[in-house]
Amino acid sequence: MHEANHSVVSEFVFLGLSNSWTIQLFLFLFSCVLYVASLLGNFLIVLTVTSDPHLQSPMYFLLANLSIIDLICSSSTAPKMIYDLLRKHKTISFGGCITQIFLIHAIGGTEMLLLIAMAFDRYVAICKPLHYLTIMSPQKCILILVASWIIGFIHSVTQLLFVVDLPFCGPNELDSFFCDLPRFIKLACMDTNALEFMVTANSGFISVASFLILIISYMFILMTVQKKSLGSLAKALSTLSAHVMVVILFFGPLIFFYMWPFPTSHLDKFLAIFDVIITPFLNPVIYTLRNKEMKAAMRRLQGRNLEVGAVSDL
């Protein structure tokens, strides 16, 4: 009985995405392409925003930090997933599993708050343009960013405090390709129903509340603009459409994963791939293809690189 109170599991085994070698090879190639593309796309956004003097506004400061978060988010799980697709025995150490859980929830919590900050930035820019630079000053942007990271860190640590000392004595198989709290808790050698409900309700409530705040804020912006003119409404719709697409892509899988009462392993895995690989790839695509200033800045960056290359050849 004394030994049963202590964890004896030193590693966890991932069951992965599929038992078919053909499907695993396809997923390997698909994931590699999207992961590399998301790294390049998000890095390009960060480089463009930091190097172009025309993009030194609060909106682009927040956008660059969103890209940094996407870089960290995808890199916390995607490389391990891609590596495991070519392995028969997919394992992760206990410490590695805890680290993954911490990063996923810390980065996820930070990104939620950053998306809310971006929505507030659009509200001020569209509804209070004369006060925009005063309300969204550089100091306040940095304060928003620091607060987002601190709250994300607190959220993740709070979640882990309840589970890090759980006893694990087997089995140690996770029907997934990464570690997350719901499946991790189920493997503990004790009754975890109350703990599962608390963790799921906590993450689910935060996801739903953040999503509703964002959607209501966008609706409020459109209602405010509509009172001015139809031209202003069309411009606001064009500006907000990219933000709404990113919000739906980010929160959709999270809300379904935590709030859907009839979880299925295959659907959960698909949504997890969407969050880990596809969303970080789509974010830079959405923001660059639908933003004239970003496209112009990237052309200027390309032009400068070509000039530097031509001078070096001489």
Low-confidence stretches: 1-5
Kindly provide the radius of gyration, computed on alpha-carbon positions and rounded to a whole number of angstroms: 22 Å
Query: Which outline best applies?
Result: globular
Overall number of strands: 3
Share in helix: over 70%
Series of H and E elements? EHHEHHHEHHHHH
Instruction: State the major sheet.
Output: 3 strands, mixed
- Report the sheet-strand fraction: under 5%
Number of helical stretches of at least 4 residues = 10
What does this structure look like?
The chain has 314 residues and is mainly alpha-helical. It is built from 10 helices and 3 strands, in the order βααβαααβααααα. The chain has a 3-stranded mixed beta sheet. α7 runs antiparallel to α8 (230-259). The longest helix is centred in the middle third of the chain and has 34 residues, at 94-127. It is globular, with a radius of gyration of 22 Å. It starts with 10 loop residues before the first strand and ends with a helix. The model is unreliable at 1-5 (pLDDT under 50).
